[in-house]
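Query structure, 346 tokens:
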């Protein structure tokens, strides 16, 4: 019965997508369809149900179809929320395809957030990368001391991107083993992976306890990405459950002052602000638009650049979403709107 439901939902999604070539985020939907095909073709005997993800995916596609039929313009805030939903669905589908297992060889750089960032497509965070790397590596300090760091900022400002850039730097890879990445984002209506199941039952201490024996005697790095103040995982004694004495470190990212103050305190905090250089958001937008090698002409640059700078408000995610939308619009040649950015400020 479960298999038949999943088959129906998959076919329903594919049919709707085939009939919606101009829907927003069409390329992302196509990528998710490819991932679904891989999961379906997998011969893994312990595949878990992806019914909830398929329900969510169909719902998001229907929302995009509805927006495409509306004559009014869609707010940038709505489009960013849709993109976040697609990221969460992709994350959950990927975790079903590559089952998370708490073993040392699988802990290294385990993926929990959206796709790893390409450093060449990140702009405006150079100083923050240097600051975070210095806070993490702590030159001149004892190599066996435990270190907890927090990155705080508003949604879409680049907290996860900053953590990923440092997480994947060669010097960090050399000094820390294993490196563990856990996403703590709320997964509304999406099936839990084993890590989330531990967290739901035992909270953050449950995860740390499960890792304790595997981290003994090791200089580990753990990133806890997107800790929310509505999430009951935070606890001011959480780090007591981690082994000490070998230089282990933890980085958390959060939008919440309460979470940061509870988990880290006020001293070891990096506060990430919206980008102040207008060129940075423009470069992020331009990277998305020109990813297939088709460059913008001078007329388009003059028309779009002030709009991108204003509407992105210094938030990299907003600039990226606008770039994705313009890219898809240009690919589908949507009439006279070709040279405009649709999303309005919300």
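Result returned for the query:
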């Amino acid at each position: 019965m479960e298999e038949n439901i999943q088959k129906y939902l998959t076919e329903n999604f594919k049919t709707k997508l085939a009939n919606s070539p101009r829907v927003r985020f069409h390329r992302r939907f196509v990528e998710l369809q490819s991932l679904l095909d891989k999961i379906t073709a997998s011969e893994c005997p312990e595949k878990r149900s992806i019914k909830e993800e398929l329900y969510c995916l169909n719902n998001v596609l229907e929302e995009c179809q509805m927006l495409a039929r509306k004559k009014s313009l869609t707010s940038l805030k709505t489009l960013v929320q849709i993109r976040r939903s697609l990221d969460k669905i992709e994350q959950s589908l990927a975790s079903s395809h590559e089952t998370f297992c708490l073993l040392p060889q699988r802990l290294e750089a385990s993926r929990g957030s959206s796709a790893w960032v390409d450093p060449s497509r990140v702009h405006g965070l150079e100083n923050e990368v240097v600051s975070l790397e210095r806070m993490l590596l702590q030159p001149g300090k004892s190599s066996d001391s435990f270190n907890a760091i927090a990155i705080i900022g508003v949604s879409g400002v680049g907290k996860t991107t900053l953590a990923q850039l440092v997480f994947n730097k060669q010097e960090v890879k050399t000094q820390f083993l294993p490196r563990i990445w856990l996403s703590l984002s709320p997964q509304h209506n999406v099936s839990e992976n084993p890590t989330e199941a531990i967290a739901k039952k035992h909270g953050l201490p449950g995860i740390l306890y499960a890792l304790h024996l595997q981290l003994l005697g090791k200089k580990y790095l753990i990133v806890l990405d997107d800790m929310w103040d509505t999430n009951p995982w935070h606890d001011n004694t959480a780090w007591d459950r981690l082994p000490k004495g070998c230089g282990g470190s933890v980085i958390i990212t959060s939008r919440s002052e309460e979470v940061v103050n509870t988990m880290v305190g006020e001293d070891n905090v990096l506060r990430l602000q919206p980008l102040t250089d207008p060129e940075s958001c423009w470069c992020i937008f331009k990277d998305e638009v020109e990813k297939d090698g088709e460059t913008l002409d001078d007329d388009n640059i003059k028309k779009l650049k002030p709009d991108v700078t204003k509407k992105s408000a210094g938030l990299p995610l907003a600039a990226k979403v606008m770039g994705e939308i313009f890219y898809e619009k240009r690919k589908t040649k949507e009439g006279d709107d070709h040279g405009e950015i649709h999303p309005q400020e919300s």
